[in-house]
Structure formats: structure tokens, C-alpha cells
Amino acid sequence: MSEETKQVMVTVTIDGQEKLVPQGSNLIEAARQANITIPHYCYHKHLSIAGNCRMCQVKIEGQPKLTIACNTTVTEGMKVSTHHTSAEVAEAQRATLEFLLINHPLDCTVCDQAGQCKLQDYFYQYDIQPSRFTEHKEHKMKATPLGPEVIYDAERCIVCTRCVRFCKEVTKSAELGVFQRGDRSYIGVVQGAELNNPLSGTVADLCPVGALTHRRWRFNTRIWNTTITSTVCAGCSNGCNCEVAVRDNQVVQVKGKLTSQGNKGWMCDEGRYGFMRFEPERRLAKPMRWNGSTYELVKSEQIVTAIKTALFALKANSKAALFLSPYLTKEELAAALDYAQKAFQLAATSEQISLSPRPRAVSELEAILIASDYAPNIQAACALNMVEQSSDWRTGLNERYLRLLKEVKDGKYAAVCIIGDYAINADQIDAALVVAVRGAEFSLQLGVREDEVLGSEELAKGTPAIAKFVLPALTVNERSGIFINRLGREQKIKQLLTAPDEAKSEADWLKSLAE
Amino acid sequence: MAHHKILTENVHYADQHEIGRYEERGGYQAIRRILNSDPLSIMEEVKTSGLRGRGGAGFPTGMKWSFVPRNTGKPIYLLCNADESEPGTFKDRLLLERDSHLLLEGMMIAAYALGSHWTAIYIRGEYAHPAACLAKAINEAYQRGYLGQGIFGSDYGLDIVLHRGAGAYICGEETGLIESLEGYRGQPRLKPPFPAVVGLYDCPTVVNNVETLAALPWIIKNGAAAYAQIGTEKSKGTKLMSVSGHVKNPGVYEIDLGYPLLDFINNECGGVREGHSLKAVIAGGSSVPVLRADELAGVLLDYESLKTAGTMLGSGGMIVLDDSTDMVEVVANLQHFYSHESCGQCTPCREGGHWVEKVVKRIYEGQGFPTDLMLLDSVCSQIAGHTICPFGDALVTPVLSFIKKFRNEFDEKIMAALDRHLV
Questions:
Q1: Which ipTM was obtained for this model?
Q2: Which domains does chain B have, with CATH numbers?
Q3: Which of A169, A485, B269, B353 has an alpha carbon within 20 to 30 A of B344's alpha carbon?
Q4: pTM (two decimals)
């Protein structure tokens, strides 16, 4: 479609409101623009039209029967009545709800979807009366695992086929299908397959009812007891928009957020279930100082003075190396570069400042939603002039990081600053590096880990404490600020978890150190 | 009255299904005659004949063909719907088994008129013997060069593929049939787009009933005008009626459209059984409204007259019920069928259909409540017209029409149940 044809607008009248909408718009989307919600289950903006739930029926002038809005493209002069103005539509909607609920187990009291369930919501909005169904309900399979991350309850299912269409159209792995027919219909995994694609958890998000639930979050919490925050996943530079539910300083549920661009509501399992992977097992809560044999706790004011003194004692023209974490926000990166300038007279473009893109390999299926690096804010390196944007700037950054790491080991730098968790990957830390860092005239670290053990499995995740001065900073879940994703879109990340008392953002620490 | 024998002229010959005998009796003459003519003129001829779809809806065949766009660059497919599954309907079976080549010739004519080079017959899975007959006939036709590349020595190529369904009623719905033929679950598609534009493999597609296609050779041989002279003004030609139920001579009959319904039952079918009287007639297959015996006077067997009487000619599957019939049982039986055959795709039919079945069954078993009839009326009215395909309407029709026409029998069952509840 050329730009010109996109611009053609048509006038539609929805419940008496005239609205100009782009030609070719879907009626549900057109109504949304007029602030009228047409209720629906099976329709999803980014999936094909199934038209099977019959919830979105509307009356269109000139058509003898009710029409489903999801399969209707608006045309010039179309006059539409929704449930607000047409008793016939309201009655059809009430009947659809009644039909959907007759075989539903109505087990809201133990259902994870309660509070975010379209059956509940629409029932309260459009029906709210006792059922006339007095027959025996159909009984079906309960709690069937479809794959490692998703559990299926056939009794709650309304066979809207969103999950089936997702696996067919988006991941193209087609593990799911509808089995049986009539009111025995259920969703199942095709023979020999398992719902284990890299985006499999998304089907539970798509489920408008409680039929598909996240295996690891089942029976965890009632959703109304959580705080839900719209933020951006820090798993990779794709920057998927999501809504995170937090309870007791723990992430208890993550849902993809329906965005017009970007991730369209999809989330990869790695990002969705991985929010807590940024949290260290032993959280650094107070500043520490290496006394030659062990770390001792120091008060905040004292350590700031001590660091300033140590920096002051550094000979002029001492060479410094700075390792910045790829999980810092744009603001924090700017503060770190500012510190590099003030303390070591290093420009942003300096080859002595590293920011590792943490490259990774992604399979074809993963590439739907996962970028080929772990660094959520790598594009900020360009925005802050650390590197010139070229075809291989990421490779260049990574090479600079590895070279700097080797030079530190070789003792070429008098001062070493490690700013933020993951500034140096744990698997690249060995005894030689620790000796080199602690042996440098000046070494400062802003991190979140109290651990000083090397080489253990669980530590392969972040940067353990290795410098002389270690200040408690923030994990990525505790930050707010701007991330720039791989397409250059600036997105706001919001604080999800509360940091311990003396932990402060890297920007705050560096500001007080530079005073 | 002597009816025209257009479809059943030769079915009484035991060897009619053999290609040699079929040709001796005038077969494969019509297709030979038209192979060099303009396909559009054939379509005009069919339009003039007034032939209407015999599957149930009665849509004019020539007009259906004219909806097919011919310049899309995509192939055009002709599909023969032999998924005859409507309870009470078994008219196509006669043609499939006894005069298979008549259908093949009809398909050749239709395919030529449409410019289709690949056609398929979708036959219901339960029709094992008719499928075997067809398979043999298709083989014979290929061997003689009547199918394949350059049929009858012309430069027009045509293939006919026989596909057996897996036994689902809904695959008789044309888009359900197309889905099934493509290898997917037999579930009707959303319309629009209609199959004439986006059908099999997203190509323009025409789906015609067996009986419709089988009428084409006669129309070509004898001319559209001759066909149009038979029947009434709007319902032209002959119709196969498959009669079952309480008549002396059940079976398949070919009648001129416009023949009086009572005459048909009393003369052709021999009337109801001795000692019984006529109670009701379902004129065109189980999903059309029932007519009481006292409503039958003056009703003619054609599309318009039956519509005036409040029912439909449908597929011509006539079920005759005499005074020994328990009407509640009839509905319970039909609802069992319909709820079993619901494809389960859309909500009202999937959930509502089974609800209706359960309520009707409960009434039949003597557990009904006085509110049940109101409930049925309300539920049925919310299924009809709210589904993807016409199955929703088909499943509520028997319930609504039987309750309307035989309300007293339902009331009696419910009152008897009420008495029991009180004791």
C-alpha cells in the first residue's frame, strides 16, 4: 500500500458519532478511535481473523443480520450500532456470554486469571444474572501441561483459537491445534510436539480467560494484590514493552504489552521469566573496602571521602580504564562519562572506556523477538558519542572491551573503574584479573553483589566484587530512566523493585564522588 | 401424472454404470457437442434453463457460475458436493451408484463452461459403495480418453479427483467442504469472501450439488427451452425426492416441480401405512420446518409454494410422519444428531446446540419443566443467525417448528412430569 492510499479517510457513524477513520480500518479498531469498546475474545489486532467467539456482533444499517465487527472493514457512510444503542446487539451479546459460561466451571476463586479475565469483565458489564442452565456441565481435562511453561485447563477454554493462531502465524511452529468437535472441542498439542518454542509463554497472555496459565506463576498471587508497572524488558536490545506485576519485592507476573509497533504484545520466555535473574543471591547493601585480605564494611560518607582521597593521590597522567555496564540507563551512562572526564580527563570517545554489547547467538525462531546481544541500552553508546555508528560498531565495542580487559590484566592501568553490574562478565573474571584490579593504584566498583567467590556457576551471571572500593548500586529492576533499543527508539524503564537502604543509582554515586 | 425422466431415465438398468452401456443409451453426446463452442454460451444456456441448485438453497446455477472472475490468472475449480448428509436425504446416492457417468458428464459440461481444468468430487465418508462406483467410472473415463489431457480428442484437458470425507455433516457446507478438501479441519469459513472469488486454495471456486450437475447433459441435449417448460414459472425442471418414514413406498422419485405434495404422497408413495393417518411432513430434509397434515392441502412441491407454506424444498429429503409418531422423540432424535455434528467453531452453535439437546432430551425423558419451552425459544432465537454458517439455523428449525406446530405434545409431557414432581 502506498503512502497516498493510506491517507484516504472514510466517515463512519458509530452509535451516532461520526468519525473519520482510515480506509480499510477494522471496525473494532475504528470504534476504538471513537472511544467505543466493542467487546471481543477471539479478535487480536496482530493475529488473523477467526470470527468464532461471536462477541463483537454489531448492527450495520442495511444488513439483515447482525455482523461481527472483527471481520468488517469500514466503508464510507457505514452506520453501525453497538450494544450501546441496539437492544438486538445487546441481547446477542448477553446470549453469547451465557453460552460461553454454561460449560465453564466458574472456578474464579481458584483461577489465576480472576481479576484480569474477559469472561468476568464482560459478565459484569453485559450480563450479570444467574444462569438458566440447569443441565450437567461437560467435563474435560484439567491442568494439562502443554509444554514446559504453559498449563491448559480445557473446562475454562472458550476455543477462541488465539493460541493456535499465534503458534501458526507468529512462531510458525504450529504446535497447537483444536481437537474433537462440538462442545467436546479442546486445544491440544499435535502428536510428537511440545509447546516449547521460545515465545511459548505468550499464549498464556493471549488467552482471554484462565485456560492457559504460566506454569511457574500458577497459584502465586491474586492479581489485585500486586502493583502493575508498564516497563521495558532488559533482556536484550529489542526492548519489548511489558507489564510487570510485583508483590513483596518479587516479580510475580509479566505480560507483553500490546503496542502498535515493537513487540505487539509478544514476549520471549527468556525475557518474561527472566526478570529475577538480575537479582543477586547475596545483595550488596553497604559500601565495602578491601583491606588487603578481606572486605570490611564502611559508612557511606567515609567511603566517599576515602575514594576522593585515593583519587587525589593518583599521579597526574595516570592511565585509567573504565568498564561501563550495558544495563545502565542513558542518564547513568552520561553521568559515568561525565565522571571519566572530570576524574581522568577522558573524552566520551576515548578508547579507554568500554561498554560491552554482550553478543549472543540467536536461533531463527528466537530472532522473532530476541536481538543478537544482551545489552538493552547499547544504542545509547552511539547517542552519547562513545562510538561512531557504522556497520560494525558493535563488533568494535566488543573488541575494545576485550582488549581493555587484557590490558588491565597486564597491569597497564593505574586506575580501574567498574561501573554497574555486568560491566565485566563473570565468566571473563579470573584470579589474574582480580589481582590486577586490586593491585592497581586506584580501583572503584559500583555493583550489587557481595560475593567474592570466583568461577562458581551462579556467579556466571553478574560482576562479583573485585575492586578496592565497592559501592552498592542498583540492579536493572531497580532503575528508572531511558533505554534506547536497537531501532533507536527511546523507551522509559520504570523501577519495579525497591533497592536496599544505602544502595543508590550509579549516577548519584558518581555525582557525589565528582563533587 | 407422468413425470419427466431427466435424471432417472436410465437408473433402472442394472448395467447403466458401465461406460459402454452409458454411451449406448446416449451418454457422452452432450459434452462432445459443446467441446468446440464458446464456454460463455453454455453458461447462458444454463441460465436460460432456470436450473437451480439442488443441494438445498435453490440458488440459480447459471448465476452462481457468473460470479466467478475469469481473468484473475488463477485456476478456477469446480467441486461436486456429494456429501449428502442431511437426515432423510438419499437422492444423490441413487445417481452416484447407478448412473455415475451421468454425473461425470455433467461435471465435464460445468467445468468446460467455467474454464476449469481440475475438479473434485467430495463424497461423504459413509458412502463407501457409491465412492467405489464413482472411482470405477472415473477410471473408465480416463481409459477412454474422456478425462485427462485433451478429452474426446479436443484440446481441452480435465481431471476429476474423487475425495472421500471423514464423516462430518458440516463438510456439506461449501466452505467447510473446501477446508476439508484442503486437508484442514472441516470448519466453515467466514464470509465474505465467498468461494466464487476466494475458494479452494484461495482460487475462484464453484461448488455444485450432484443432482444439479447431473441435470446438465439433458439440458445441453434437449435445449434450455425444453427444460424451462417443465415445472413452474420460477421452479423449473424436475427434482429428486427421497421419501422416508411412514409411507408404503419409500424411495427416490423424480417429479416435475410444482406437483401437489399430497398427490405425491398418496399416488407416488402409496400413502401412509394401513390403519394410520398422516400427521406431519418434513418436506425437504430435517432442517426445514415441519408441516402439519392439515396445512398440506394445495401445497405444491416447488421452491415458492413451500416457502409460502412456511417451509422449504431444501434437498428434497421428505420425511413422512403418521399418527404413531411421538413428536418430542423426533425432536430429541434430531437434536442429538445436530449437537453431535456441530463443528464447535463458533460459540452459539457449540454451546447452545448442546444445551438445546439436553433440554429436549430431558423433556422427552419426562423431566421437563413448564419454563423449558420458553427457555428453548429464547436459546434457539439466539443461535439462529448468529453463527458463522447456516448450521445454527438448521439446528434450531426442528425445535422451533415442532414446538410451534405440536405444542400440545410437549405440554403433555411436561405436565405429566410436573404431576410426578408433585407426587
A1: 0.92
A2: 19-228 (3.40.50.11540), 238-322 (3.10.20.600), 327-422 (1.20.1440.230)
A3: A169
A4: 0.92
